[in-house]
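Changelog-linked ticket: magnesium ion example.
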Amino acid sequence: MQHLANVSELRGAKAHAAAIEVAGLSHVYAGREGQVPALEDIALTVGAGRFVVIVGPSGCGKTSLLMMMAGLRNQTSGTILCAGRPIDAPDPDRVGVVFQEASLFPWLTALDNIEFPLSIRHAPREERRRRANAMLELVGLQGFGGRYPHELSGGMKQRVSIARGLVQDPPVLLMDEPFAALDEQTRMTMGHELLRIWSQTAKTVVFVTHSLTEAVYLADEVLVMSARPGRIIDRVDITLPRPRTYEMMATDVFGRLRERIWQQIRKAT
Ligand SMILES: Nc1ncnc2c1ncn2[C@@H]1O[C@H](COP(=O)(O)OP(=O)(O)OP(=O)(O)O)[C@@H](O)[C@H]1O
Ligand SMILES: [Mg+2]
């Protein structure tokens, strides 16, 4: 009994553990016209399994922050811990990344694009195929694995990007305006699909968007950033139940949450 109690305590601890911890983070770019302070004293914690959305005015440092969380860029000062350890170089086993542009290799099929992160790590061919096919199915593209990017729609290409971000099964997925280039209807469908994938895979997601509707629809919590140099100026808990439905967008609660975030962004610019 003692042992069982310990196991469930451990599980409980894991469920509340921080996937990402940022403390005292600042960044200054050295541009041609001198120093550009981009981020100032950022502190945030993303709990394991949470869906956190970051919003803020253009140029406030959202992409910079995500690049640092992915180990793709080094901050000037401060620390970032991912799963309890510093991240100062890309580590696809810990963090997957999906950018605004699908950025697929045009000469590779959808399946080969998804496999790519595994092939550069020399994973056995059979395992690569199996994983890539499972991811293709997860994003609803079964039967399209042999297509080249130019034979896919914008939404399908983004699905391939998401599958590629997930193929190494990282606990954390960072997404920088992944649906910005899509029409509104496809964008809503993709958001809904992403929530389905998130609930099936229990990932931690950090998602950047300019759409406040998308932010409220997707998030457990929304972090609002100020204009450059970016700081976190508000943290809004999204209290809507899950699973989220399109009908929720018409509710007063949804409208009030969206309005609060909008007011903060207006003040911030
Ligand atoms: N490599 C760089 N060298 C110099 N300055 C940079 C560099 N990258 C970004 N910046 C500057 O840092 C600031 C933050 O840029 P960043 O791309 O992180 O903003 P963002 O919040 O993602 O903006 P957007 O919403 O438009 O995507 C901007 O003022 C930008 O001009
Ligand atoms: Mg950006």
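Closing comment: Example verified and attached. The chain has a mean pLDDT of 91. The beta strands are 18-31, 34-47, 51-55, 77-82, 85-86, 95-98, 172-176, 204-208, 221-225, 232-237.
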